[in-house]
Amino acid sequence: MSFLVAVRLLISPICAFVCASLLEAVLSAHDTVAQKNFDPVLPPLPDDLDDDVEEESVKIVRLVKNKEPLGATIRRDEVTGAVIVARIMRGGAADRSGLVHVGDELREVNGNLITHKKPEEISQILSQSQGSITLKIIPAVAEEDRLKESRVYLRALFDYMPYEDKATPCQEAGLPFKRGDILQVVSQEDATWWQAKRVGDCNLRAALIPSTQFQERRLRYRMKMASLPLPVSPKAATYDCAEREDCDSEGGLNGKDIVSPKSKAAPVFCGQAFSWDFYSAGLRRSFRVKKDRQGSPGDPHTPDANQSEFLIYEEVTQYLSRPGERPRLIVLIGSLGARLTELKQKVIAENPRRYGLAVPHTTRARKSHEREGVEYHFISKAAFEADIQSGKFIEYGEYKDNLYGTRLESIHRVLDQHKVCLVDVQPEALMALRTTEFKPYVIFVRLRILDSKRKLLGSSSSLSSGITEDDLQEMKMSAERMDECYGHLVDYVLMKEDPVSALAELQLVLERVQVEPQWVPVSWVRS
């Protein structure tokens, strides 16, 4: 007998014994598990239930809560005085449990009767509780069907801090956001407070934001209060505790939110009118927009969630140009000293096949080194004025008795060649360009102004030479005012420190616009 055969005969009995032992252990474990009861163990019902409660359906709910909010708000029923669950926050602990619903009556928290406590006191008890929370609930007579999560996306057009808003039913449940943030609204079943998530946040729990109608109502109230002959304290427009429960009263406003893109009146900053004459002069000292400017071509369209005249929300969706479509128009606006023309020309010079310039028109005489249609289109003053009357100019102005302007035709000529058209305009022209036809991507170039002019754009930069402290203040003021009035129309802010880094950053942004989806007004895609 060979050695290999002997080894096999010896191993075979051992394997059989091991397999039998393992099978016996598995069967024994199965019998042990099968005899156990793994149903959830709920706390027993209290023996001292009131008579009227015994006739009702009582639900004992035990939730496990860590540091996160419970995810529910409550209100006091005006007729019965009962404490009612007002809303369930999507993704919160209460929502995930599936055991608490809108309309449920809350009787006890951890064995403590809360029917005589104020909603603020109950909310504090719930927020301070950790670990297991036991709730005694009288279910709603007819529980509302849970709505499917909506897919409405809004761009915020104002800043919001729930801890500064006395109207919110629960400050801890509010969602803070900044102008420009993209919000996904997951529930609009409450006409006053919507539930939303901020796109990009890792937190899956929804939070409260003021609805468009509610925010507009209190903006109107603040404008009304501001028109009174006596000055009104900002606190006079906020909410007290009584108003917080129903949220139907009007009030609360941050003055910088009152900016209407459709209003023909001068914009309002913090309740005071602002002169556009000074603003235009601060932007371009050598180029003044004429006061008698005719209406721009096209139909200006800056939609928001409800076509409100106030800057509240704008419904948006993601968009990326498909192959064969004309590229999006790139619009540059800039504060005083941003040197947009220089920046724009450098981009085009490095890649003339991909980028093009909307050549402006002028009535001045052509210089010896200039070429028609390259630096300018040279036309007569009579022809220029006729084009103004026909509404062919996006913007125009006068300098040293010569007219200058950008025509709509110049932009179309570049886009029709499937080149990315770069145009820099006064911010007022944004309203005429912000259309479905152009789908503009707006870049705001502003200087990074530090404490000292020697630190402005680097001590060795030619841009810092000859700049006075008054110039720095004017640059800073023009940037702040442009941001305040037109920041809601801006897609990207480029902080210019020096020409080299600014060019590199701009080229990177232009590349992303062509290859990555961007948020645009939903009307640009649906129309």
TrEMBL record:
Residues 327-511 form the Guanylate kinase-like domain. Transmembrane segments: none annotated. InterPro entries: GK/Ca_channel_bsu (IPR008145), Guanylate_kin-like_dom (IPR008144), Guanylate_kinase_CS (IPR020590), MAGUK (IPR050716), P-loop_NTPase (IPR027417), PDZ (IPR001478), PDZ_sf (IPR036034), SH3-like_dom_sf (IPR036028). Belongs to the MAGUK family. Residues 1-16 form the signal peptide. Gene3D superfamilies: 2.30.42.10, P-loop containing nucleotide triphosphate hydrolases, SH3 Domains. This is MAGUK p55 subfamily member 3-like isoform X1. Residues 149-219 form the SH3 domain. CDD domains: PDZ_MPP3-MPP4-MPP7-like (cd06799). The keyword Signal applies. PANTHER family: MEMBRANE-ASSOCIATED GUANYLATE KINASE MAGUK. Keywords: SH3 domain, Signal. Residues 60-141 form the PDZ domain.
